[in-house]
Amino acid sequence: NVIPLPGGVELPVKTNGIFQTPPRATMASNILQLPFRRSHTVSLSEAITQYISSKYDQRPDMFAEDLMIIDRLRSEAVNVQEPHFSGVSRLVTYAAQLKWLSGKFPIDVGVEFSWYPAFGFNASRPVSQNNLRFELANVLFNLAALYSQLAYATNRTTADGLKQACNYLCSAAGVLSHLRTDIIPELRTSPPEDMDDMTLQSLELLLLGQGQECFWQKAVKDRLKDVSIAKLAAKVSDFYGDAGDLAVKSNAISTDWIHHMTAKHHHFAAAAQFRQALDCLEKRKYGEEVARLRDCLICVGEGLKEQRWINRTVLGDLTGLRSRVAEDLKRAEKDNDVIYINPVPPKSELKTIERASMVLAKAPSQVTDAISMLGDNGPLGQPLFSKLVPYAVHIAASIYTDRRDRLVNDTLIGELESMTDKLRDLLSSLNLPGSLQALEKPLGLPPTLVSHAEEMRQQDGLNRLHRSIEDTARVKGNDLAVYNEGVELLSAEKAEDLAARRKYGTDRWTRGTSESAAPKLYKSLTEIDGYFTSAQGSDDLVQRKLEDSRSVFIVLTGTNRDLESFVPSSRRVVIPPEVEREANRLRGCLSEVTRMENRRRRRIQALKDKARTDDIHPALLTQTARLEREFPMQPIQASQFEDLFEDQLKLYDSDREMLAQERREQDHLSDQVREANQAFTGSHKGDASTKEREAALQDLENGYLKYKEIISNLDVGRKFYNDLAKIVARFRDDAKAFVHQRRMEASQLEIDVSNATAMASLHISKPHLLQQPQESGRIHHPPSAYSAAQPAQAPPQPSPPVHNVRPAETSPPLTAPQPVRAPVAPPPVSTPSMPGGMPGMWTPEMGIRFGSAAAPPNGTPSTGAGPAPSQPTRAPQPGSWDPSKGLRFS
């Protein structure tokens, strides 16, 4: 792994090892080229196929050719790793299709795109994201890298070559600018380390500086005026300086590149002053010429401070400029001192050199206006999956369906049913129609009651209710099991995270908690739990209704004999004319109530049919086509169809008016029923048997209504749990995906923490050495232990550090071998050439022995000279080494 620097020099990368030498002979260059990002092969078509199958109504085989093309385009794009112009079309075509797909699919389409960073310390570790925008960002970065490498490979010894290289570098800077301002903000995730704002801005300014340098070089070749060349050079210096300042703030750009930018910044600052000095010479401003040449020499000196890290070409440019400036300065100072004698102004009084910028970060139109170039005759080919309804359109259709269903079911149908229930409650409170039936038919069963009982018998009423309750409970149980599965997954992941947090501590286990990592998922958990709690209350209410009316249901589902036994007969009486008149009036009101209920049932069915045939898809597709034509770069959003929703819902304005009319008619009819019933009860005084018959008939009528009510409640409950099944299944799937992602993160974080802990344990420590009583400092010992004659007052020497100290054993360890010096008399100071050598130096004549290193407590050397006789039979003293026990280090 090497980094190509200007001049063709390849320096080894000591910090990250990310740059790869292009597999070709590189010529001497004074510009840098961006390295390519690399990726693994993934099948985008498989993810799209699965997504279409699960989310769309269309079949994936309708798009078999498009699926094959998208994989081919990606393969061609990610394999662009050579500076050839054919790679531009491959990259821009794939990038255009990715932009187009962003309007058709959500960005998390279901494939993990893995890319290796081009800069930074983690270039060997790929970054993976399930994100189409992340894929697009990497492709555009490689496009910028390709343009920079094309500029690097261009022959810049000719005017045309310099112009072409400048255009390439401006295009590269424009692509990076488009990436930074338009693509990265839409990632919805944190960008990779080498795609943060500081890094991209630094690279963009670097490319602009190199493009400006090409233009400056062309100006020099064309022999433009010195003042014009100075303006160009000053702007080059600014570009490099700003790029270097931003590179220092980046965590990805290597120090070699920063040194290169710094050297170029000072180089072109000097070049600008040099050219301005030549202009001063031409205009006979001899004092200013000297001042600018002196500042030029200072700038060159600043640039030469980077000579350890820059390549031969840049270093040669600096040294050549220094030689030229030194000669001119010597000549200028001599001429001015001897001939012109002009005052030399200080640098603070020199006029700032004007800047002339000749470059602009401009991305190709194939990048900024890519979607408009897709079409039948477009230069970038046909847009893929054009017949697939965009994802935002499906979202918009779902939003409209929800609004329409709420309007129809809750506002219209729900209100109609609520008004009907109020009307039935009114009749029940007035004991109708039981009181009227008891008078009109004192013997036998009323026809309406017989028809109601026959209806319930045909539907197997009571058993039907039980079966419906069991079916609803079964669906509810399945929903609860799926929901609990997701809850258990989240609980297990949360427990694992807390255990790891307790194990490693919050200072090392730095990732967020489970709730903060997935707030929407935990919000769904709470919402679904609320759904179950609310639904349980409704289920209990339905069960109580059934238990309260069970005895009546048994009678209604029995035989006619059971009904006759339940309803007592009263004696036949002669009905007076005034009573018959009020009874007929009340009967007419009840008939009107029946007609109103039948009319509402028909209207409710008509509303359901109207909602079923209300298809907004054609209007959505028409609106989508118009938006894609008018705003090709803007992704389709569901919010763009709000006006269409309002227009479509106007279809139900007439139904809203009908609802208001029904409310007015019911209020009027309710008043009529109350008046007629009051007149009827005032004119009719029944006996006790009549009252009992009225109560029995009313109980059966109320029981039939309660049966219909419970049937409706059970249908609503079953539909609720069927709809909830989709919600809990999605919750469970999201929980599985989240837990899998968190466990992968935890595994990687645990490896990182373990590696950091292992590195931290490799600290430098000093061995514990026994101090000799007769010495004032530590004794320095070489690798082989020895004992030699040594003066008693030898100067202390530091102990070398010992790495990877082994933990202490359970048994007392042996002391490491210590050097023991034989006590000898100190030599005369005036005899430097003594046979024993210099003090503190061992000579072969001293001999080697192992023995006690102890000295008398008073620190005076023991008497005797030469090697002491060995005493193998003596037990080792503390502080001495026993050879029979080997070596052990504590």
UniProtKB/TrEMBL annotation:
Domain BRO1 positions: 30-423
Entry-linked PROSITE patterns: BRO1
Domain of life the protein comes from: Eukaryota
InterPro entries per the UniProt record, alphabetical: ALIX_V_dom, BRO1_dom, BRO1_sf
Low complexity composition bias: residue spans: 782-792, 831-844
Annotated stretches, region: Disordered: 770-890
One Gene Ontology term, aspect cellular component: endosome
Entry similarity comment: Belongs to the palA/RIM20 family.
Protein name: BRO1 domain-containing protein
The species this protein was found in: Penicillium hordei
